[in-house]
Amino acid sequence: MPKVKPHRTSPSLDMTPMVDLAFLLVTFFMLTTKFAPEEAVVVDTPSSTSEIRLPESHVITIAVDKDKRVFFGVDDDAIKSDLLTQVGAKYGVSFTPSQIQAFKGVASSFGTPIEKLPALLSLDSEQRKLVKQEGIPADSVNNQFIEWVQTAQALSRKSAYGKPSYVAIKGDGNADVPTVKRVIKLMQDKNINRFNLITDLETKPVAGN
Amino acid sequence: MAEIQQQADSGKGGKKRAKKMSTKIDMTPMVDLAFLLLTFFMLTTTFSKPTVMEVAMPVKPKPGEEQPPIKASNALTLLLGENNKLYYYDGLLDGTTKPELKLSNYGADGIRKVLLQHKSNPQLVVLIKPDDKSAYKNMVDILDEMNITETKKYALVDISKPDQELIKTSGL
């Protein structure tokens, strides 16, 4: 009897279909992913059972952190430079082209009064991260906040999008209610009545029974 | 380790088996990389989209426009106090009657049960009054409870002095 010969086929298997699939998915995710913009402030949002997702684009984000600071952000690249120049013009602050360019990176979330914005924009991005921003003034005396919101809304309406942006409020779980309410009140005064409160997802419990 | 297919059988016959070199290459590193990227993108996409709660605040009434008052029998007032405390009372607070203040909490056995009990009244209006010392989290929680219990009519109202007094005097 001849010895039973072990199979000489190699243990490697055809990975082509798997690779095909993997790359298909990689491509899909690469194209659909939008990286979370850099946040100037750490906000720990409370959770809710709401399953509505934040719209992909045309969002104005208003962050309120636990130190009562108000941060403002727009995600629409098309309006960023106009927004900066228009709000700057209102307060008599002008910007150099390189500062306007820098604003495009900062605009997703910033909390600096307009007077100090040129200085912030002149820094390079590494230094900018170290700056502790004091928040945008949002009270009846110095209401720069509503200027930003209104100008952004007006620009959004004029842009290709043609509608005002969504207003998302991103409050820290430990933020105090008066600040959040003041922000809402300021916008209500300007007839902005629909808000999105950004929350984390939690599973919906069954009510009753 | 680009591999070469083993010779299946040692050249039988004199036929020239010219191109028996396989074109197979080892794809393992590529697959590793592909899956690494896949995992990375999968995780970043799902986590970057936050959920939102939609809140529509009432449009400011025009001057001279009267808003119909809420009947006290249809009202439920929730007071969000400091240190995550939650109080509620039936009806409205006016000069004549002093409603009985009750303590509740944000858990499943707390305010949710109260809201569900009140749901039998279809005309129920819930007034949410966050105290200045309450946290924003409380406000979101309570709006969320409205969502869970499917309470349709509710309003965010500023807390009033008598309400604050009521919390203080109740000692809860």
UniProtKB/TrEMBL annotation, chain B:
Its main location: membrane. The keyword Cell membrane applies. It is found in: Cell membrane. Keywords: Cell membrane, Membrane, Protein transport, Transmembrane, Transmembrane helix, Transport. Pfam families: ExbD. It is a single-pass membrane protein; Single-pass type II membrane protein. Transmembrane segments: none annotated. Residues 1-21 are annotated as: Disordered. The keyword Membrane applies. InterPro entries: ExbD (IPR003400). Belongs to the ExbD/TolR family. This is Biopolymer transport ExbD protein. It comes from Hymenobacter glacieicola. The lineage of its organism: Bacteria, Pseudomonadati, Bacteroidota, Cytophagia, Cytophagales. The gene is exbD2.
